[in-house]
Amino acid sequence: MKDQCIFCMIAEGTIPSVTIFEDDDFRVMMDINPASKGHCLIIPRKHFDNIYDLDHETAGKLFALATDIARALKEALGCDGMNLVQNNGEIAGQTVFHFHLHLIPRYAGDDVKVGWVPHKSDPDELKSICEAVSARLSSD
Ligand code: 5GP
Ligand code: ZN
Q1: 31 pocket-lining for ligand 1 (C-beta < 6 Å)
Q2: Domain contains 140
Q3: Catalytic (active-site) positions
Q4: pTM beyond 0.90, yes or no
Q5: What atom in ligand 1 is closest to the CA of residue 39?
Q6: Which of 5, 49, 53, 133 lies 20 to 30 Å from 90 when distance is taken between CA atoms?
Q7: Tens place of pLDDT for every residue, the chain, 140 residues?
Q8: Hey, CA dihedral for 130, 86, 38, 62, is it positive or negative?
Q9: Is 109 contained in some domain?
Q10: CA distance 43 to 64
């Protein structure tokens, strides 16, 4: 529990939320300002600022839970698609600094905006980025 963290307070139930699911590790709640019908958030009970902090065990359980929630949303709402969004850092749109995964159901003709402008790539730059990143991954 991190002091003054609104999602820690929601996770532990001090602040109420419209909760779809909860277990020992997670709470899944409706987003208070939804981008679309059914927009919800998966939050770990334990505080992690962002993805750089998240441990493998929590990350694995979280994504497994996301598959269940996504299927339940699709069945319940009949959405046409779904975006999973996870923002890290202010520049990336993070406003609550307790890790959370957005599930945003999509409907034909909706006004949700999730995206980027594709740029032409430089093959040498792709290769050097690839090498720099892969060199930092351990094999264990
Ligand atoms: P971020 O921009 O950090 O990726 O997403 C934060 C999300 O949390 C936003 O979609 C916002 O609507 C939602 N949110 C912020 N405060 C609350 C709250 O008190 N309750 C709920 N249910 N959602 C919240
Ligand atoms: Zn927190």
Answers
A1: yes
A2: no
A3: 100
A4: yes
A5: 10
A6: 133
A7: 888 999 999 999 999 999 999 999 999 999 999 999 999 999 999 999 999 999 999 999 999 999 999 999 999 999 999 999 999 999 999 999 999 999 999 999 999 999 999 999 999 999 999 999 999 997 65
A8: positive
A9: yes
A10: 13
Q: With beta carbons less than 8 A apart as the criterion, state whether 25 and 45 touch.
A: yes
CATH number at residue 43: 3.30.428.10
